[in-house]
Design goal:
There is one protein chain. This protein is α/β, with parallel strands linked by helices. The protein is built from five helices and five strands; from the N terminus they run E-E-E-H-E-H-E-H-H-H.
Length: 199
């Protein structure tokens, strides 16, 4: 495990009701994946909270008590998941420099005319904000990137062409037990960008 000289950074790839979390430690030039896991952002005891704005396939849940209950449960449960994860890493001796968040979209849901697309945008926004809130409550700065922009941003910031970034990410994944999918690579790259940021 690398020392704390370069510190550590936490990357998240946000999904509906959960997120892929990767803890990257070391330096920009010598980083190592220390931990990789899935964290729940919605309460497993409230299955509807995974898609709180949905009321059946393609149908929006109406404003009211039930929607408020579901959104509130996500905010409470998700915040506890994120802050608990961060606290655990800090207790384990990792000095976190910040948090990187990868999302599918940053568009304002109110600007969308298609109701089904708007539902997904609202949920994406909710789960992203839960992670942002957890970072803020833990005293950490965070940065957010769209997944489609991530490799371009990283190529410029890390001064490496995209093919070399992909090769490096594949190599980092070889040390991880289990799967190493696109969401893991994106979360790792977000954490890598945080390591490269001077605060």
């Amino acid at each position: 495990m690398p020392g704390t000289r370069g510190g550590a950074a936490l990357g998240f790839t946000v999904k509906s009701g959960w997120a892929c979390a990767v803890l990257l430690a070391g330096s920009t030039d010598a980083a190592e994946v220390v931990d990789c896991r899935r964290i729940e952002l919605s309460d497993p005891g409230i299955p509807e909270s995974r898609q709180p704005y949905h009321d059946g396939f393609g149908t929006a849940r109406v404003e009211g008590r039930e929607l408020t209950r579901l959104v509130t449960s996500v905010e409470r449960f998700g915040r506890q998941s994120v802050t608990g994860l961060i606290t655990g890493y800090a207790t384990g001796g990792h000095h976190l420099r910040g948090v990187g968040v990868v999302v599918g979209s940053l568009i304002d849901p109110a600007s969308l005319g298609n109701s089904h697309v708007r539902i997904h945008a609202l949920e994406g926004q909710l789960f992203r904000r839960v992670i942002e809130d957890g970072a803020e409550r833990s005293g950490l700065k965070y940065s957010v990137w769209r997944e489609r922009d991530l490799y371009g941003v990283a190529a410029r910031s890390l001064h490496r062409p995209e093919p070399k970034l992909r090769t490096a990410l594949a190599a980092l994944g070889r040390a991880v037990d289990g799967s190493w999918r696109a969401e893991h690579k994106a979360a790792t790259l977000a954490a890598w960008l945080v390591l490269a940021t001077r605060h």
